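Q: Structure tokens for this one, please.
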Amino acid sequence: MTVDDGALLDAVRSLRWPARRKAPAGLAGDHRSWMRGISAEFEDYRAYRQGDDVSKIDWKLLARRNRAYIRLSTEQTVLPTMIVVDASASMAYPSATLEKWHFARHIAIGLASAAHNGRDPVGIALASENGGGHYLPARTRRGIVHQILALLAGVEPGGSPRLAPVLETVALRHPRARIAVVSDFLGDAESLLKLATERSSAGREVHAVHVIHATEMSPSERPSLVVDPEEASLKRPLTDYSRLGYLDNFRDWRERLARDWRMAGAAYTRVVTDASPAQAVRRIVIPPETGSRA
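A: Here is the predicted structure, written as tokens:
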């Protein structure tokens, strides 16, 4: 674990990741479930039915209405969380520092910590050139966040691995889980979006975390030669004129990507490397009604 890793974990130590939707019923936890039950947090009444626990009858209401009712509340449950991380060559930018990759790695670690702080099982899957062994199933055990940290520390982004098959596998293995996709979405974005739409339509929670390097938002004004990170033979000059075209196209693409993911029912958050990872993680996990995620 690096100094930066330790500082990040300290910064998100008290952070929890509340569910955006009511979660499927399961083990007791911090999230509101689809299931109604009888617990401490009152939500509604229903008429008493034969077989109900008579100790749950609201006797004062019975005295007023001459009819028996029991108090209902929403059960609290855990929400398994899987984080799918893009480790393709486009994430290895700039090549000298891999700043974009390290930022994405910290986002994944911060999200894992926030989920685990709420007693949720958490795991990770990577779309990487090697692929083998870059998967940890969702678990609640104490050391799982440090296992995720260690796995990510051993990965070097590269190649053109497809993210959609990894997302599909995770969805099949973890049918109840909340899934966060951490990527620059420069690969198989359409296939990813289709899977996310299906997942969201089934009532499951999906997050798109769009990682952008600060210089991608505002490239240097000096003429330069731009190389496609996943296809080294593709090279284009970046001049004053082409820079303006790039900025327009990149803005339109970002806006379209955000709109498509939100229309699919997913949460979309854009994170840029000039922010602190801890701040970026907070923007992702705060409830949507209390803050903007654009």
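A few notes: Strands lie at 31-47, 69-77, 81-86, 122-127, 135-139, 178-183, 206-212, 224-228, 231-238, 267-272. The chain is about 35% helix and 25% strand.
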